[in-house]
Write a structure and sequence with these properties.
- This protein has 717 residues and is α+β, with helices and mostly antiparallel strands.
- It is 49% helix and 17% strand.
- Strand 8 and strand 9 form a beta hairpin.
- The chain is globular and about 85 Å long.
Length: 717
């Protein structure tokens, strides 16, 4: 056992003191307060000047930060946000943080849009919410898309005319950015958001519209029919009453589970016998996932327990097992991957580790961690923290024959197994759902802004607010917009059993990939990929390319193609919040397969699809009412924004349990990593290894730079 030197003890006491103040909501501490407390604890006699230097070093290494300046107390220090076992980050948090590390102008627009909505919460937004209780959602989306088409066409006509008049000037047409913005909104909503077929609306590529004068073509009848198969609900906002469910016998046997996946990162520091540290530059990423199973009253009375827990054991055998790859990641383990490829794979691994837990619980193969001989009952509803679509789902990544490609394929493979169970269950299939706390999606919010300024005049006679600042409001995300909208309606008491919900929107798996613009017409996805494989095989033979995954396997039962043909995702919002400002609502979504019913194109099959969607929405609301919700402030700690979020109770409990298990993970990790490093880096066995937290700011800056590089590389292609 090595002796801890005085500077190290001093730094640890400072960190401990600041952590205690943070836990007690006491705010930052001044140099004098830190000096007096720590010198008393250590019973040492050193000058306050020494503490200035120690604090400066801790600030430089990213362990503490200056929270504010006080006229009397001077600089106030707090702990810097770090990625550690007690403060792991979810993928939702990660992508929200990346947004804050984009341009300051973009961040300012987001904040300004939130302020704009809050200013009009009790006036414009409330009027819009009450009006949307009576609006047919299919008609709304149809009218909005027609308006967007007209707007894009009007913008491009101006561009074309300016191009004729300024052929020799070389200047960029003045309305080009406006056209690009209106075009991007339409393209995103039509193809990525609603999976509309090209036979209903055919939007040419941007450069074809501006240079070749190709126009948008659409068939009004086919467009409305397509929307009728993708937008579900009697009105844009409607009410669900689950009081009868509360008294039903099925509630006695309702099993609801929730999962949370999180990651933290750290650098390894080698401590010699003299007490010096040598930082090893590689950042190690640790992934962890836990499922919490909320048992129904019938089980509780029989077994005497309220819940069960499932997680994959964090042990040497597990980490070394190829079936559990991705729980611990470091760049030196994947030398064949570039920096950007490795970071993308690390984020995919966080997602896949959680999907492994999801799949085991959802298919009934999981066992209670508290009693390994006890099977966990299959849940009727499983709610995943975050989106239910794999984060890495592009075919270009899926087909790679390396560690990155295998990680992507496993994510798709697990999702396919879950979908298989849903399809096999038919009308009695369980629900695989997601609760998305942070989203950059803008579909519901675009419609709300359009409705306030333009669309409402059709049924109301005049627009709710014709001077609505669309440019300012455009920065609002769906989650924030729907929180504002639904919380403006009459607040329902918790025991009322009544909830306002939005209409549900369906999109297909290809819309979430690079194939969102593919026009299949009369061929299947299997035929499309068979043609693609034939082309790739020819190119591999001609140019000597390395083979890719899809050129080496039978495509008839390929997981990616199966998802393209069968996987549908339905999303909606539930109004279960109030206050000023109201806690942010998550977007709820669930996995289903409606393609066969919708392709039959008859009234009976369409009625079945609608009935299935609305019934699933109601069952999910019933399950949420059964388990309840929690206020999520812990996740929010990683964000500079002061927005409080609401999460379903099972997800909240899963997150709390993951922190507890994370501490065990950290303790078990040392011996595993040390032995691995001895093998790879030949570090002396008598040295001690410490996993040192990574500053959130430094980690996010690193990811932001990689993302910006990816965008530059894509635009250069």
């Amino acid at each position: 056992m090595y002796q801890i030197d005085a500077p190290t003890r001093r730094e640890r006491k400072i960190i401990q003191y600041l952590r205690e103040r943070q836990a007690n909501d006491e705010g930052g501490a001044s140099v004098r307060e830190i000096y007096e407390h720590v010198t008393h604890e250590l019973n040492e006699e050193v000058s306050r000047t020494m503490y200035y230097k120690v604090l400066n070093r801790l600030e430089t290494t990213g362990q503490i930060e200056i929270s504010s300046e006080d006229d009397e107390r001077g600089r106030l220090y707090t702990l810097a946000a770090n990625l550690n076992v007690e403060n792991a980050v979810t993928l939702d948090d990660l992508y929200e943080q990346l947004e804050t590390y984009s341009t300051t102008d973009a961040l300012a627009r987001v904040i300004d849009a939130r302020d704009y909505f809050q200013e009009h919460q009790e006036s414009v937004i409330k009027v819009a919410a009450e009006a949307l209780l009576k609006e047919d959602p299919v008609n709304l989306f149809f009218d909005m898309i027609i308006h967007m088409i007209d707007l894009v066409q009007a913008d491009v006509e101006i561009i074309r005319q300016q191009g004729i008049e300024q052929t020799t000037s070389g200047d960029e047409p003045q309305g080009l950015k406006r056209f690009q913005s209106s075009y991007s909104d339409l393209d995103r909503i039509a193809y990525r958001g609603l999976s509309l077929p090209r036979e209903a609306i055919d939007i040419p590529l941007q450069h074809n519209m501006t240079l070749n004068e190709h126009d948008i073509e659409y068939d009004a009848g086919m467009l409305r029919a397509a929307l009728d198969r993708r937008v579900f609900g009697s009105s844009f906002i409607y009410e669900i009453d689950i009081n009868s469910h509360r008294r039903s016998e099925s509630r006695q046997y309702l099993v609801v589970s929730g999962s949370d996946g999180s990651m933290h990162a750290g650098t390894l520091a080698l401590q010699s016998a003299k007490g010096y540290y040598e930082d090893i530059s590689d950042v190690i990423t640790f992934n962890n996932s836990v499922a919490y199973i909320d048992l129904p009253p019938a089980n509780r009375s029989h077994s005497g327990i309220d819940y069960m827990v499932y997680t994959i054991p964090f042990e040497r055998d597990t980490i070394d097992d190829p079936n559990h790859r991705g729980m611990v990641l470091a760049p030196f383990m994947y030398a064949e991957l570039g920096e950007s490829e490795y970071e993308h794979m690390a984020r995919a691994a966080t997602d896949v580790v959680q999907f492994r837990v999801d799949e085991k619980v959802f298919t009934g193969e999981a066992q209670n961690r508290q009693n390994k001989y006890e099977s966990i009952p299959k849940p009727q509803v499983h709610i995943r923290d975050g989106t239910i679509t794999p984060q890495e789902r592009e075919f270009g990544h899926y087909k790679r024959l390396d560690a990155y490609g295998e990680m992507v394929r496993e994510g798709i493979r697990l999702e396919r197994r879950i979908l298989d169970r849903i399809i096999a269950g038919g009308s009695r299939s369980p629900i695989f759902a997601g609760s998305v706390k942070s989203t950059q999606m803008r579909i519901f919010s675009v419609l709300l802004n359009w409705y306030i300024a333009i669309g409402s005049r059709k049924n109301l006679g005049a627009a709710i607010e014709p001077n609505w600042n669309l440019s300012r409001a455009a920065g609002i995300s769906d989650n924030v917009a729907m929180t504002s909208l639904l919380s403006s309606l009459d607040n329902r008491p918790k025991d009322s059993g009544k909830y306002y919900v939005t209409c549900a929107l369906m999109r297909q798996f290809p819309s979430l990939t690079e194939f969102y613009r593919v026009d299949l017409r009369d061929e299947s996805w299997l035929e499309f990929f068979e043609k693609r494989r034939a082309r790739d095989v020819n190119e591999e033979a001609r140019y000597g390319y390395s083979p890719s995954y899809h050129t080496t396997v039978d495509l008839a039962d390929d997981d990616f193609i199966f998802m393209c043909e069968r996987a549908d995702f339905v999303m909606f919002y539930v109004g279960h919040t109030g206050g000023d400002p109201a806690p942010s609502l998550p977007r709820y979504e669930f996995l289903t397969s409606l393609r066969q019913d919708l392709h039959l194109l008859n009234n009976s099959s369409l009625a079945n699809a609608k009935r299935h969607v609305l019934s699933t929405v109601e069952k999910l609301v019933d399950a949420l009412d059964f388990t309840g919700w929690e206020i999520d402030r812990d996740h929010n700690f990683l964000s500079s924004k002061s927005i409080v979020k609401i999460v379903p109770h099972p997800i909240y409990r899963a997150h709390e349990l993951s922190k507890t298990l994370g501490k065990k993970l950290d303790a078990e990790l040392r011996s595993i990593v040390i032995s691995r490093l001895i093998e790879i880096k030949k570090i002396r066995s008598e040295s001690e290894i410490e996993v040192r937290p990574v500053s959130l700011k430094d980690y996010m800056t690193r990811l932001s730079e990689i993302n910006q590089k990816d965008k530059r590389d894509k635009s250069a292609r």
